[in-house]
Amino acid sequence: MRVALFLTCVNDTLYPDTGRAVVKLLTRLGVDVDFPMAQTCCGQAHYNTGYRHEAEPLARHFSDVFGEYEAIVTPSGSCGAMVRELYPRMGERARAEGRGDTLAATLAPVVPKTYELTEFLVDVLGVTDVGAYYPHTVTYHPTCHGLRGLGLGERPRRLLQAVRGLELVELPGADECCGFGGTFALKNSDVSAAMGADKVRNAESTGAEVLCAADNSCLMHIGGTMARLRTGMRPVHIAEILASTEEEPAP
Amino acid sequence: MSGTYLGMPAFPEAAREAVADTTLRGNLRHATHTIRAKRAKAVTEVSDWAELREAGKRIKDHTLRHLDRYLVQVEETVTAAGGIVHWAADAGEANEIVTRLVKMTGETEVVKVKSMATQEIGLNEALEAEGIHAYETDLAELIVQLGKDRPSHILVPAIHRNRGEIRDIFAREMSEWGRPAPEGLTDTPAELAEAARLHLREKFLRAKVGISGANFMVAETGTLVVVESEGNGRMCLTLPDTLISVVGIEKIVPTWQDLEVFLQTLPRSSTAERMNPYTSTWTGTTDEDGPQNFHLVLLDNGRTDTLADEVGRQALRCIRCSACLNVCPVYERAGGHAYGSVYPGPIGAILSPQLRGTGSEIDASLPYASSLCGACYDVCPVAIDIPEVLVHLRERVVQGGEVTREGNKVVLRPAKGHAAERAAMRAARWAFTHPGALRTGQRAASRSRRFHPRTLPGPGRAWSETRDLPPVPTEPFRDWWQRTRGGKDGDR
């Protein structure tokens, strides 16, 4: 099976290790991964900040780049939700504004083919034990767009539970937002920081070494707060845990 | 009592103070987490919750689509039952009508049932200006009124106060308004409730005029419905000679059968109760029983304009249960006052900028008072997609566009203060539609990584004040991919 990796602009620029982990993991599972070099950004930050007209060219660009692939896999719940939930809505709005069906028709092909990584593993490949080894205590934060936008449910936790050596501990208040929210972290910095601090305190109370999530944007906010509060905990993307093996263990 | 809401600072500034107030944060956290857990349990007890939610949504959407017809029906049925119907286009008109009606009775005191609509129009202040004293009889509203404070929650207006603060307010203020608080009042709930009961009893027995809102109006019979927990509302609805109800035009349900849906979803969503303790209904007037004069003031105040917006109109489905406030992580930290409106929390963030327009600083900032986490949409018993409306209103703020104000189509210009952001968004869009440019930027960032400051200038400062930035990697992913063909040519 040949899939396109939609890495996201944030991961490409700031978290290449997550991208390498996805490639390593999928290759190990027999998937032929391609990285279309023309990919950039899904337009989520634009759309959610109110710049829908700036987001539309990015959505069209996304469709141009990924339209031909059988499946598109992304290690980001929020960028996955952007494509799956909000691209159809962008098409509807264009129609409602009397701009016809063109945008909807352009975006439609990529919508059902786009999968968040854990969803792709469990639903498409049908695996929960990906042969990973990660000897650490881990707590899992289900990010908002993964949890409520895409409805990832128990998939990430089932994957983590099957990892050898990994001890999964419950995060109190797991389904509460960490306070990142894209430009929210800048526009409402005080509230965002208070939410982040509460999330980190909850994570600390578990005694875990690692806080894991399926979205590096949230992890950037949580990890930045952890570093500032000197907790000694580390944020780690779920792809890096699932890619980790005894031969090549992730730190 | 309460100062004016408009002219308030934008949400981020108003929230800053609340976030720093540890007592307030503690009060809010305790209250919202308790009710949140109870609501979740009360909802799982109902096997057909998803169907009830969908039914509530459909009934409200149907009513809003045919609101003109149902409003005429309400006028006919209320009039036939002996009531008098008044139409108010805005807050000023509504206040004028109510003031005139009270003056006609010759009274200078009225008792009030807790009502969001009268809070919205500032009725108490308008009556006070005409020498009429309005006494709030809902316990939480009483606390707010005595404390010369503003409500901060739809259902529990005094949620920001703890027992000790309430005791102090009662002991200090009750004598100014009527029967003083008993000597040596403590902060035990029973003693506080008894003090309020004695204070209010005097008001109920003396009042000749009652003023209420309504949770619902049943069009087929012209019946108004109030749901409450304490029974104080029922006293106001039955004891006075004259009853004046001020109700938003969106509160209609077509039939009693429709009402059945909401009498299940409202109490479970708001107080996590299986059924409501006091559900009062009144239809016009009845000889020798209850108020002999009944007036219904139908309030528009921006609702028709909101109805004209096809994305934003879903906010009018709201039944004011406040479930969205109780789950909102932003409300929990910022408190209700930061929203600058009688409608705080997620629903306030979409309702106020629609009812009032996005012209003021506070209204333009409200659509951004959310991390778009979606918890509010999940709990809403009438399935209002609050995140969708927030983004829609953000678009209105930064891009402008056509809206309906006072029945006329007007074209809004983009709000001020977003020029730099707009330029940045445009530049980012340009880079993202030119992958080569993006790559050049990524490489420049990687090469200069050793020189990156630990704290950021400009708007980025808000980030680096409380969080560390991640280090920029030595090589963006796409360069690694190209160099190694995805690891096939060796990983390092």
Automatic annotation (TrEMBL), chain A:
<dbReference type="GO" id="GO:0005829">
    <property type="term" value="C:cytosol"/>
</dbReference>
<dbReference type="InterPro" id="IPR004017">
    <property type="entry name" value="Cys_rich_dom"/>
</dbReference>
<feature type="domain" description="Cysteine-rich">
    <location>
        <begin position="3"/>
        <end position="83"/>
    </location>
</feature>
<dbReference type="GO" id="GO:0016491">
    <property type="term" value="F:oxidoreductase activity"/>
</dbReference>
<protein>
    <submittedName>
        <fullName>Fe-S oxidoreductase</fullName>
    </submittedName>
</protein>
<dbReference type="Pfam" id="PF02754">
    <property type="entry name" value="CCG"/>
</dbReference>
<feature type="domain" description="Cysteine-rich">
    <location>
        <begin position="138"/>
        <end position="222"/>
    </location>
</feature>
Automatic annotation (TrEMBL), chain B:
<feature type="region of interest" description="Disordered">
    <location>
        <begin position="438"/>
        <end position="492"/>
    </location>
</feature>
<dbReference type="InterPro" id="IPR017896">
    <property type="entry name" value="4Fe4S_Fe-S-bd"/>
</dbReference>
<keyword id="KW-0677">Repeat</keyword>
<dbReference type="GO" id="GO:0006089">
    <property type="term" value="P:lactate metabolic process"/>
</dbReference>
<dbReference type="Pfam" id="PF02589">
    <property type="entry name" value="LUD_dom"/>
</dbReference>
<feature type="domain" description="LUD">
    <location>
        <begin position="73"/>
        <end position="299"/>
    </location>
</feature>
<dbReference type="InterPro" id="IPR037171">
    <property type="entry name" value="NagB/RpiA_transferase-like"/>
</dbReference>
<keyword id="KW-0004">4Fe-4S</keyword>
<keyword id="KW-0813">Transport</keyword>
<dbReference type="GO" id="GO:0046872">
    <property type="term" value="F:metal ion binding"/>
</dbReference>
<dbReference type="InterPro" id="IPR003741">
    <property type="entry name" value="LUD_dom"/>
</dbReference>
<dbReference type="GO" id="GO:0051539">
    <property type="term" value="F:4 iron, 4 sulfur cluster binding"/>
</dbReference>
<keyword id="KW-0479">Metal-binding</keyword>
<feature type="compositionally biased region" description="Basic and acidic residues">
    <location>
        <begin position="476"/>
        <end position="492"/>
    </location>
</feature>
<dbReference type="InterPro" id="IPR024569">
    <property type="entry name" value="LutB_C"/>
</dbReference>
<keyword id="KW-0411">Iron-sulfur</keyword>
<keyword id="KW-0249">Electron transport</keyword>
<dbReference type="Pfam" id="PF13183">
    <property type="entry name" value="Fer4_8"/>
</dbReference>
<dbReference type="InterPro" id="IPR004452">
    <property type="entry name" value="LutB/LldF"/>
</dbReference>
<dbReference type="InterPro" id="IPR024185">
    <property type="entry name" value="FTHF_cligase-like_sf"/>
</dbReference>
<dbReference type="InterPro" id="IPR017900">
    <property type="entry name" value="4Fe4S_Fe_S_CS"/>
</dbReference>
<dbReference type="Pfam" id="PF11870">
    <property type="entry name" value="LutB_C"/>
</dbReference>
